[in-house]
Input
Amino acid sequence: MDRETLEAYRRTARDFARKELEGRSLRDALSKAEVLGLFDSEFGVWGSAYNGDAAVSCAVLEELAKVDPSFALAVHAICLCRATGVDAFCSFDKVVIYADTVPARVVELSEGKLLENCRAAELSPRTGLRGCGLARLEGYEEGKGFASDRAGELLRYYILGICSVALGNAEGAFAIAREYASQRYQGCTLIKDHDAVRLLLGEALSKMLLVRSSLERVSSSDAPFEALLSLWLMARGMCLDAVSNCMQVLGGYGYMEDFGVERRLRDAMTIRGLPPSGKRAVLRLIAYLEDKLW
Output
């Protein structure tokens, strides 16, 4: 897809997020998103019109996450389920991502198993991304078959979407830190002109740019699975580091809820903890690359 069209999608998602997400409940925001067409089976997120080109969906999720990562993750979950014909999905470590209530039938991503009669427990209220539903399965029964024959596509879209949300969350934190640094003085000088602050923001920006370029390259092609795992391992750490740098720019204020960076950090830590976990992803990556490594 050409850059001009991709930017048009970004602009539409950006305008929607800025106008419609502030002060709205998740349910109301999702209703507005439905009207906009974010859930359209053809032209919405993970729609069929893009013929496997995931760049548009990744760009939309990234722009939404700049304003509200929880909403972006909820959109990702809903659209992923609709695109692949499942009710809901959970990842390798039995963490369920959903938008409303945990369904009784859930598709597990790692092996494409259908889990039935699911019982789930809510995660801690202080866990990040609390605007959407996150729960851990405590009990389930394995079904006889898989609800969709698109298991590989489901897993690919899952990883690309989570990376997009992680990047958008980091970019949102960067915007807060940059605005703060442009308004606060120390020693009669704006702190944005202090070398230490410039270094923190510069490192954060360089990591976000690296994640974005890698995400754009992987999402716009039929990349091998090891490329997806490599992207996830890189994005989860770099985006968290970027948010941490942004938090340090605010000093002690960064820990206060007034500025919103502490929430971004909790969101980034929750995203990093979403499966595939670091150890599991590394082991799977080694399995794919074993012939090249040894």
User: Anything to note?
Assistant: The mean pLDDT is 83. The first strand starts at residue 89 and ends at 90.
